[in-house]
Automatic annotation (TrEMBL):
Recorded family membership: Belongs to the PPR family. PCMP-H subfamily.
Pfam families: DYW_deaminase (PF14432), E_motif (PF20431), PPR (PF01535), PPR_1 (PF12854), PPR_2 (PF13041)
Molecular-function GO terms, alphabetical: RNA binding; zinc ion binding
Protein name in the entry: DYW domain-containing protein
Residue spans of the PPR repeats: 107-142, 210-244, 280-314
Organism: Juglans regia (English walnut)
DNA sequence: TTAGGGTTAG
């Protein structure tokens, strides 16, 4: 951890502070005011909530100097705690730690105030820890209030070794029996990579746990993607009689969202109603996100319309939800409604909007809003925004323009952008360009499996069969492991997970018979398997067999066997749905007269009567 | 005169 880099910045702000003071006139009346009254006047300045921005704070600073209170501890600490934006906090601390400051005034409360200010701001966790070190350097003792701040900062940085050393200090000073400190320790460990076992250990050793302790642990499980276990923890929490609150419910909903478990999500919603958990904005946002990502975007929209108070997250969740379901027009008009309502869009809202334009082929709208993002809203585009634009141009078939766009981008394209370009080159016949980009990408990312799949597809299209065969050998030689595709389906409050060629289900014989039957019906209806999707070096018949064992097809067969005719089927795939499964699912929706909703890694596909809502662009 | 867990995208 590098803390030394912070000093020069502080010194620079000190110069700014001095310049501001010397240029301002000195009022003789201030000098005659009694010290006590000056202090009161100064503290009153901080009651004004508009004073927490940098320019306002600088103005306040001038006043402080005028009143001769630059070394008053009350004023100093109030000064630091008022700040809420990073520049302002830096400014305040540069003032407090200026070379002429009276170091005898430094106490635990003063440091706690500064550490808290930095720990609460997302980009300044390092500075919180830096000032913790400064505090120790000055020989000022940390108390039980210091550690929740410091541990929180460490959680944000996700550095396990640092957290362990703080844990050591906590034990040494005897604060490890304090409930707040214990809960923050669970949170810290559960946020650090590789720390979940430690979090569990602290949690298990706690004499008493409350909803905060459970939420800290459940949150860790959710962050790791251990959603099923997170739900399991929630059930256990109920069993031991700890009442969940709105934050616990946000986390539980987040786990449902990850699993795509709509029925479970609905149950959680009714639980919230039944238990009268306070439905604040954040909980409503989590509900909206859950419904949108579990396939019921209309319900998400309804909840959104009924909200009395909305934040940018509410708008973004529902806009992103519509985009994901291919309802780009509605997403764009909701975005425009948001601006009309006076809510300023942020960078995330623009990602939702641009991805809506991309998924629905709204190229002109996309260009217009991308332009307004930089010019009107002064948001600097990140690689994700450029990525959306490239994706949008590629889907619309403007491959040449997309290539030009990438060349002109002020930032280096990341592998995601390059893969988008390569897929477009493959789809629109720019094979040579696609091959070159892929080779370059493989040099940068030699262990990324999908780069080889892309190259293999390009060679197949170029009819370079020998080169295509070689790719498999290269992959084997490098010992690359493929992320196994898996599909989940929810049935009677249980979640079933399938992987390719799965035989772990009790029903597996019937499932494979059903897959066979589906295959016969599909062929009769004119479906031809897309065997070029299969990377393995095997003959055509075996390839067909490999496709039939894809996890999506197994899950659909399972659903056809276990649900009444005519009921919709909802499945969740961990990767992008493959070409062949997409084509097959269209046929299945018609032949078996089922609406099939597929959530893949990127978006939703609604299959109905032989068609998909994505109009074959995904 | 200070304290703990949460939501959008990638």
């Amino acid at each position: 951890m590098q803390f030394s880099a912070i000093r020069p910045k502080l010194l620079r702000t000190i110069n700014v502070a001095t310049a501001t003071t010397s240029s301002s006139p000195h009022h003789p009346s201030s000098a005659t005011t009694s010290k006590r009254a000056a202090e009161q006047r100064c503290l009153a300045l901080f009651q004004d909530h508009t004073c927490n921005t940098f320019p306002k704070l600088a103005q306040t600073h001038t006043h402080i100097l005028k009143l001769g209170l630059h070394n008053n501890p009350l004023v100093l600490t109030k000064f630091a705690s008022t700040s809420s934006d990073l520049d302002a906090i830096d400014y305040a601390s540069s003032f407090i730690f200026s070379p002429d400051a009276d170091t005898r005034l430094y106490d635990t409360f003063l440091f706690n105030t500064i550490i808290r200010a930095y720990a609460q701001t997302s980009q300044s966790k390092e500075r919180a820890l830096y000032f913790y070190n400064v505090m120790l350097d000055y020989g000022v003792w940390a108390n039980k209030f210091t550690y929740p701040f410091v541990l929180k900062a460490c959680a944000g940085l996700r550095v396990l070794s640092l957290g362990q050393s703080l844990h050591g200090s906590v034990v040494k000073l005897g604060f490890d029996d304090d409930a707040h400190v214990q809960n923050t320790m669970v949170h810290m460990y559960s946020s650090c990579s590789g720390g979940i076992e430690f979090a569990r250990k602290v949690f298990d050793g706690m004499p008493k746990s409350d909803s905060v302790s459970w939420s800290a642990l459940i949150g860790g499980y959710v962050r790791l993607g251990w959603s099923t276990d997170a739900i399991g923890l929630f059930r256990k929490m109920q069993m031991v009689g700890v009442r969940p609150d709105e934050i616990t419910m946000v986390l539980v909903l987040s786990a449902c969202t990850d699993l795509g478990a709509l029925e479970l999500g609905k149950w959680v919603e009714s639980y919230i109603e039944k238990e009268r958990v306070q439905k604040n904005v954040e909980l409503c946002n989590a509900l909206i996100d859950m419904f949108a990502k579990c396939g019921d975007v209309d319900k998400a929209l309804k909840l959104f319309r009924n909200m009395s108070e909305r934040t940018i997250v509410s708008w973004t969740s529902v806009i992103g939800g519509l985009a994901m379901h291919g309802r780009g027009f509605e997403a764009v008009s909701l975005f425009e409604e948001m601006i009309g309502a006076g809510v300023a869009p942020d960078d995330v809202a623009f990602i939702g909007l641009l991805s809506a334009c991309s998924h629905s082929g709204l190229v002109e709208k996309g260009r217009k809003h991308f332009d307004s993002m930089t010019k009107e809203f002064k948001i600097v585009p990140r690689i994700e925004h450029y990525g959306c634009m490239v994706d949008m141009l590629c889907r619309a078939g403007h491959v040449k323009e997309a290539l030009e766009f990438v060349k002109k981008m002020p930032i280096k394209p990341n592998p995601i952008v390059l893969r988008t370009l390569i897929s477009a080159c493959h789809a629109h016949g720019e094979l040579k360009i696609g091959e070159n980009i892929t080779k370059q990408l493989i040099r940068n990312e030699p262990m990324h499996e999908s780069n080889y799949v892309l190259l293999s597809n390009i060679y197949a299209k170029m009819s370079h069969w020998d080169k295509k065969t070689k790719i498999r050998e290269v992959m084997d030689k490098k010992g690359m492991t493929k992320t196994p595709g898996s599909t989940m389906i929810e049935l009677d409050n249980e979640i079933y997970e399938f992987v390719a060629g799965d035989k772990s289900q009790r029903q597996y014989k019937e499932i494979y018979e059903m897959v066979e039957e589906m295959g016969r019906e599909l062929k009769g209806a004119g479906y031809a398997p897309t065997t070029s999707e299969v990377l393995l070096d095997i003959d055509e018949e075996d390839k067909e067999d490999a496709l039939n064992r894809h996890s999506e097809k197994l899950a659909i067969a399972f659903a056809l066997l276990n649900t009444p005719p005519g009921t919709p089927i909802r499945i969740v795939k961990n990767l992008r749905v493959c070409n062949d499964c997409h084509a097959a699912t269209k046929f299945i929706s018609r032949i078996y007269n089922r609406e099939i909703v597929v959530r893949d890694r990127n978006r939703f596909h609604h299959f109905r009567e032989g068609f998909c809502s994505c109009k074959d662009f995904w």
